[in-house]
Write a structure and sequence with these properties.
Elements: H1 2-6, H2 8-25, H3 27-30, H4 62-97, H5 100-115, H6 118-129, H7 133-159, H8 163-170, H9 175-211, H10 223-232, H11 239-266
Helix pairs in contact: 2-4, 2-11, 4-5, 4-7, 4-9, 4-11, 5-7, 6-7, 7-9, 8-9, 9-10, 9-11, 10-11
Length: about 270
Amino acid sequence: MRKILREPMGFFGLALVVLILASAIFADLLAMYDPTKIAPQNRFQGPSLTHLLGTDHLGRDLLSRVLYGARIALLVALGSTALSLMLGIVLGLMAGYGPRWLDAFLLLVFDAMKSFPTIMLALTIVTLAGPSMVSVVMVVVMVSVPGYARIIRTQTIAMKTAEHVTAARSMGAGTIRILRVHILPNIIGPIVILASMDVPVVIGIEAGLSFLGLGVRPPTPSWGTILNDGFANIRDSSWIVIAGGLPIILTTLGFTFLGETLRDVFDPRLKGR
């Protein structure tokens, strides 16, 4: 933590991440209004002491919607990233340490999953399951798992011939123990850092799907739906677009800067640069 705080980029990224997390966790306390309450008499108001970010086309307080939207964005991003990471680790270890036929089969599955465009995959899942938060998580998992699994597979193949792994195998250690004790701890660091840098990508996917009407359904507040409302009413008020776009920009900067700093701190090859 001291190394991160000494880096200006790391300090700035950590501050933004903490700010976004606090906004999501304490949205109930910070929000001054109900994010779904309609007040037509307050339509298209600009920032003021009553409504710090203004109001949308239905008179709803934008700050309250942004705060509750942070909860949706982080819930989808952190949950789907964690699930993708766990599945990627399991499949990557199986492909890298298992027999060749299993490796070839899993690589074929990874390539097939990676070949589908995200939008086409989202349309397919939404058609089958309907627009919801679960559908967004399914899209993110199917898009992210092949990348994590391939990295874990490559690291496992390089690690399984290491001296300490060979020694453990010669002493009778089982496959599960070798993977859990001797291989996974040595390859988990870079993939976790990569996952932290993928969080803003997932937030962008969730916002994009919600913007297209394929994600979280109204009136549930989401940064993507706020942007959609803003573009639909851009001639009446520009504050809706600003309120929906600014948190996405800040979250992307925060997680990207923090991930870059974590990579620099934990990678000995970058020490001193």
